[in-house]
Design a protein that fits this description.
Elements lengths: L7 H13 L10 H10 L3 H12 L3 H5 L10 H12 L1 H16 L17 H23 L15 E5 L16 E5 H8 L3 E3 L5 E3 L10 H6 L18 H10 L4
Antiparallel strand pairs: 1-2, 3-4
Helix pairs in contact: 1-3, 1-5, 1-6, 2-3, 5-6, 6-7
């Protein structure tokens, strides 16, 4: 039987799934892999191997001496580079392709969008919501669905926090290296500059909180973590330059 080459569209959809699955769950028994493989007309084994090929290109995994497949194609490198160069465009493109392949409407999970008439506003709103959803799924998967400060594992209480805010850096809105997995309290504190993560990946408390540091709740949730090293993700390690920006422009020093 003639071997069927992977198309660019198939590779983009495969990379989309690679982003959303914690590294340790890339295997042929994963229901997400089985489902997408069926939609692509591929075997779970072929798809999981393709995800492992992407893993070999991941700098974070390489630094931790965790490798995927040792051989891959130049097409995989091309898709990796496409995403790295323009996360916003490729995230949306991959989500649209995924919807087409699986026979779903890309808007069906966003009920509020149904109230908006057709046109530019609707198109923009859809793109924003789709990319926000992709960013959250990718960041949480990178951190294995655990807060990088407290290791809390309740997904409903976790946020994908932007290091450089969404409104400020358009080019890195969907870049997972501009994300941290934080619980709701630390996410709010990070967003308001009451805490920061230093470029060497340690949590730092704002002096603004120090006068209240004898408060038991404040101690428990924030002060006790001052200087603690965060748990790094399995991939898409936070960019130190982004953390430096937060330190210098958002953190209340």
């Amino acid at each position: 039987m003639t071997k069927r080459n992977w198309s660019r569209e198939e590779l983009i959809v495969a990379f989309n799934l690679y982003c959303k699955i914690p590294f340790g769950k890339i295997h042929i028994r994963n229901p997400q892999i089985i489902s997408l493989a069926n939609s692509l007309g591929r075997t779970p084994s072929a798809l999981s191997w393709k995800l492992a090929n992407f893993a070999r290109l991941d700098p974070t995994l390489q630094k931790r001496n965790i490798s995927g497949a040792t051989h891959g194609s130049k097409e995989e490198i091309g898709v990796w580079n496409e995403f790295s160069a323009d996360w916003e465009r490729l995230a949306f493109e991959s989500e649209k392709l995924l919807a087409e392949i699986t026979g779903k409407e890309i808007e069906e999970t966003f009920e509020d969008i149904e109230k908006i008439v057709e046109g530019k506003e609707r198109e923009t709103r859809v793109r924003v919501r789709v990319n926000q959803s992709f960013f959250r799924a990718t960041v949480l998967a990178a951190y294995n669905n655990k807060c990088c400060v407290t290791s809390l594992e309740v997904v409903e209480l976790l946020n994908a926090s932007h290091i450089i805010p969404w409104a400020i850096d358009i080019a890195n809105r969907v870049n997972p290296r501009n994300g941290l997995c934080l619980n709701a309290i630390h996410d709010r504190a990070f967003d308001r500059g009451l805490i920061t993560i230093t470029p060497d990946y340690r949590l730092k408390i704002s002096p603004k909180l120090k006068p209240e540091s004898d408060n038991n709740a404040l101690k428990m949730f924030l002060v006790n973590y001052d200087g603690a090293e965060i748990t790094l993700p399995s991939r898409f390690k936070p960019n130190p330059d982004f953390l430096k920006y937060h330190n210098e422009n958002i953190f209340i020093s």
